[in-house]
Amino acid sequence: MQKLKNYWVKIKNFKITRKFVLQTFLVLLLTCLFSLIYFNQATISLYLHNFSSLNKNTLQIYSIYVGQGDSSFVILPDKTSILIDTGTEEYADKFCGELSAIMENNGIEKIDYLFLTHPHSDHIGGAIKVFERFEVLDIFRPIICLPNENNPYGYDTTEDFLYIDVIEKAKGEGIVNFITPQEWQISSYILKIWTPLSVSYSDLNDYSPVITLQNEENSLMFTGDLSIDGEEEFLEVVNEIDLDIDLLKVSHHGSQNATSAEFLQKIKPEVAIISAGVDNIYNFPNEELIERLKTNGVQNIYSTNTLGTIGISLDNGLTIVASGFIFQDNAFLVTIYFILLFAIFSVREPYILKREKRYESFLQKKKI
């Protein structure tokens, strides 16, 4: 009871001081600033990356940071949009926020094509959020069926809960197609799906398609998490066809068990992008893989684990724009906020206020 009485006395005798006013102002300012940053991370990230310097009238490629996952967003000159994979479930909200900012910056209101390369959570984890946030017109899914789904092709089935949820949601959103070898023209580009060829694979990664997007000037290749076995299947298909790829999205986050020397010698990429998480437990991208890329003529290598989201424009040359991990971690932001809050209440009274108080005290004594 005595403690309560002491607190009550303190409250009754409380006086608003200039120090209290200053602290209150700083707390309000800090809270407003951090709220602005916290709820607008995607837009702020967009401007900090300086993606405005990319040429909006040509082909743009964005490798969006999704932690230890994968997602690529392609914008064609006519603003047709292609999303390949959706990253992890953990990063789904941030991913959708940054994707929305990129789309808004380019005047895009829908996703024309969505490819879900294979049923691993680090590639399809954000798909349901994508369906909730955006209009998706055409969806391409792996050649893996759901239980009790009509399956005249003899494809494998799965009972993976996430994959089932994603595909069931996809069927309610747009036209859903299986990923099979085919090609069609989009704007001035030919989009070609080279593999997979079989109906069943022991490694889920090998359901990943090899996708190219080419015209007379530019060529891109996306490989999901394709392993060396899947690459060998592709090499058999491509056979004598000459491929010169400008930009390769490296398979399986830069694992040493993919992107073989034979594969690189066939496609001869100039630029490689690797999607990997910061301080990931697999130590991706692997140093052996990086050396293999360099040995086979790939001198321009960019990775999201050191650069964050990467933006590239292709128009008879490359414009690379990338930035660090500013505002990527909510826990980091909250921690910094409370550290600054503690600093505001811990700081001693400014010297100028102390000097004024001494002067007032001197005047009081003079009057006495």
Description:
- The chain is α/β, with parallel strands linked by helices and 368 residues long.
- The protein has one domain (40-322): 4-Layer Sandwich (Metallo-beta-lactamase, Chain A).
- Helices cover 39% and strands 21% of the residues.
- The strands form 3 sheets. Strands 8-5-4-3-2-1-16-17 form an 8-stranded mixed sheet, with helices on one face. It has a 7-stranded mixed sheet with strand order 9-10-11-12-13-14-15.
- α2 packs antiparallel against α12 (330-346) and α3 (41-48) packs across α4.
- It is elongated and about 100 Å long.
- The two termini are 40 Å apart.
- The relative contact order is 0.13.
- The model has no long low-confidence stretch (mean pLDDT 86).
What structural class do you assign from the helix and strand content? alpha/beta
Give the CATH level 1 class.
Alpha Beta
Q: What is the end-to-end distance?
A: 40 Å
Number of strands: 17
Gyration radius from CA atoms, angstroms: 27 Å
The CATH homologous superfamily is named: Ribonuclease Z/Hydroxyacylglutathione hydrolase-like
N-to-C series of helices and strands: HHHEEEHEHHEEEHEEEEEHEHEHEHEEHH
Indicate the CATH architecture.
4-Layer Sandwich
Q: Estimate the helix proportion, in percent.
A: 25-40%
Counting DSSP H or I runs of 4 or more residues, the number of helices is 13
Total domains: 1
Largest β-sheet summary: 8 strands, mixed
Q: Mean pLDDT, rounded to whole units?
A: 86
* Strand-residue proportion: 15-25%
**Uncertain runs:** none
Q: How is the CATH topology named?
A: Metallo-beta-lactamase, Chain A
The strands making up the biggest β-sheet line up spatially as 8-5-4-3-2-1-16-17
Global geometry = elongated
